[in-house]
Amino acid sequence: MKTGNALIACLLGMLLAAGCGDDSGLPPPQYPDRDTLEVAFQDGVHPYETYFGTRDAVIKDGPSPAFINGNFGAEPRDTLGVVRAGSGYYERRLLVRMDLSGLSGCSAVIDARLSLRIESDLADPLVLEVYEVEVPPANPASWTEGTGELFAGVSWSTVDGTAPWVTAGGDYAIAMLDAQTVHADTAVTFALPGPLVLAWIKEPSTNHGVIIKARDTSSERSVRVHLRESSIPADRPKLELLYFKSG
Question: Is the separation of the CB atoms in 153 and 71 below 8 Å?
Fold first, then answer.
């Protein structure tokens, strides 16, 4: 009997030693359901039908003031990437921000993902990069979505139709948050850092959202992106969160 116990102990010891040496083949730890919650933000859909906290707008470089100073915040769908106008190539960038101030009881964001509905007929793929928007210190608030027309909201040149960006085309943090490649019609999803999203929840005044832009700006290559004004609710931008409950 003692010999049998010794053999079992020896085998257990060998298994434990092997487990300590390399855990690369083990599945990632699972968070207990009782400690986490999932929530999504999407105008007219999540977390409830009366949520309309999304703000988005495409800002456009171009050969005339109508593009550079124009506001396009009321479009249901717009161009993202690079277009050709005359002899030049001009960028189209997308700004997206969602009101998260109604979310309480969140101690840590485990996973955050921003999804956009994209239409594409490109022959070659387009790489899209996402960065955190930085509003100029002289501007007391965030960028303004606007309702269209010249100097009526955020544009390539201004934050709100009046106050200029430090750098035309929108100011953003140096560190890229994520990048995704678009091949065809798709719902492209960008991962956002949990600590950044938690900061937006805890301090809404710091929430200026993100800017999405094409990596390659040397040639004409663009897609069409659905915005919050889309008549199809499921095609509107969506932010999904998995977070730890407080307490």
Answer: yes
